[in-house]
């Protein structure tokens, strides 16, 4: 699913960005909805980036975000005093 879903989402977000930008550049008064398309595209790119960082359950190798979380958790446990 991720092999098809993420590239399709990138293409869709890019298309929304280009259409929204073109409409807003033509005439912002008449085609103000182009700004909303640009906003939706930016939010889409942020969601795509989050999925790329976090990864999926099917991945066998940990992503960078999971590696950072693991080392951070180990560091916190190492330097936090044991409470009674």
Approximately what portion of the residues adopt beta-strand conformation? under 5%
Average pLDDT level: 82
Note the gap between the termini.
47 Å
The biggest sheet, with number of strands, parallel, antiparallel or mixed sense and barrel status, is:
none
Topology as H/E string? HHH
Indicate the low-confidence ranges by residue numbers.
none
**Apparent shape:** elongated
**Rg from alpha-carbon coordinates:** 20 Å
Indicate the percent of residues in helices. over 70%
The helix tally amounts to 3
Structural class label? mainly alpha
Beta strand count = 0
Task: Describe it.
The protein is mainly α. It is 75% helix and 0% strand. The chain is built from three helices and no strands. The chain has helices at residues 2-26, 33-54, 64-79. Helix 1 runs antiparallel to helix 2. The longest helix has 25 residues, at 2-26. The mean pLDDT is 82. It comes from Plectus sambesii. Keywords: Membrane, Transmembrane, Transmembrane helix. This is NADH dehydrogenase subunit 6. The chain crosses the membrane at residues 34-56.
List the keywords.
3 helices, single chain, 84 residues, elongated, mainly alpha
Topology:
Blueprint: H1 2-26, H2 33-54, H3 64-79
Helix pairs in contact: 1-2
Briefly say what this structure is:
The protein is built from 3 helices and no strands. The chain has 84 residues and is an all-alpha fold.
């Amino acid at each position: 699913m991720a092999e098809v879903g993420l590239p399709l989402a990138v293409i869709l977000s890019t298309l929304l960005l280009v259409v929204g930008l073109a409409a807003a550049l033509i005439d912002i008064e008449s085609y103000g909805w182009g700004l909303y398309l640009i906003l939706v595209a930016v939010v889409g790119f942020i969601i795509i980036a989050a999925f790329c960082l976090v990864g999926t359950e099917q991945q066998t190798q940990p992503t960078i975000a999971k590696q950072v979380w693991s080392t951070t958790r180990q560091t916190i446990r190492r330097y936090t005093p044991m409470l009674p």
